[in-house]
Amino acid sequence: MPRLGSWIEPHPTGLYIPAADAWIDPSTPRERALVTHGHADHARGGHGSVLATAETLAIMECRYGPQNGQAIAYGESVRMGDVEVSFVPAGHVLGSAQIILDHKGERIVVSGDYKRRPDPTCAPFEPVPCDIFITEATFGLPVFRHPDTGSEMDRLLEALHANPDRCVLVGAYALGKAQRVIMELRGRNHHDPIYLHGAMQRLCELYQSFGVELGDLRAATGVKKEELKGRIVISPPSALNDRWSRRLPDPITAMASGWMRVRQRAVQKNVELPLVISDHADWDELTATLQEIGPSEVWVTHGREEALVHWCMTRQIKARALALAHYEDEDD
């Protein structure tokens, strides 16, 4: 009797499904790619064809140019060879999806990256019962327990209001994190202009084109210092301490990332106001998700695989770590 999931092949460069002749999130160009979401460690350019949500295809076009893409809606199914393929929300960023593969009476769900916290910029994670659940483990250690997002945003606003002659410069990943921070601020009645580093503008415009209303956004470049006092400025993390930031009025340097739980990372990046805001599930959310879905097997990738594999094994859930290439390019 063949082992469960014998029809899917993990490779360092991605997951290959021979019965569909397709790869999931391949890190090198392939003839046919299924892409979970638009972050660069999952979505690469140069594929012969791409199956993804319309939002993910738009993100890929923004980053890599025109794609030979087929858009698939959440809940829609397509037949690829002998495999039924469908996409459901992953709750990670705009357009992010879990990929459901049905073949030979088995169901495998490839989660991509996901989170379980509410996010006003994307559809929430949808749990799908399955035989094998392939989960990320970016924050797959018990030490990673993310605080309430609202409390972190309140800390940001408190710092802003307490320092009217300074600005708060928030480092946030350009895809997903920046837009989430903006929407969380709007949800707290912060409707003042928010200023953006030039690298953030295209993706913010893309989010708005898909109906995510980000409010009054303005370019930070070329603006007088006086105008930026008492304002929030959002930039890529790489710009927090470079020449660009020196034109700002005595900025309070903040960073929105799950990695801000690690104090040493905040110190290394000279972050004055670490904001623990993540677009990935924390330890409790990873384990709760596995309990909710109830798979026969769990395959773990993209992060701290060993601890989550051990957690599964102590609960009589068969588990294995996959040696997939990943880059953690998200300053999450």
TrEMBL record:
Question: In this protein, which residues make up the domain named Metallo-beta-lactamase?
Answer: 10-173
The record's listing under InterPro entries reads: MBL (IPR050698), Metallo-B-lactamas (IPR001279), RibonucZ/Hydroxyglut_hydro (IPR036866), Xnuc_lig_assoc (IPR026360)
The record's PANTHER family line, in alphabetical order, gives:
BLL1145 PROTEIN, CLEAVAGE AND POLYADENYLATION SPECIFICITY FACTOR FAMILY MEMBER
Q: NCBIfam families attached here?
A: Xnuc_lig_assoc
Annotated protein name in UniProt: mRNA 3-end processing factor
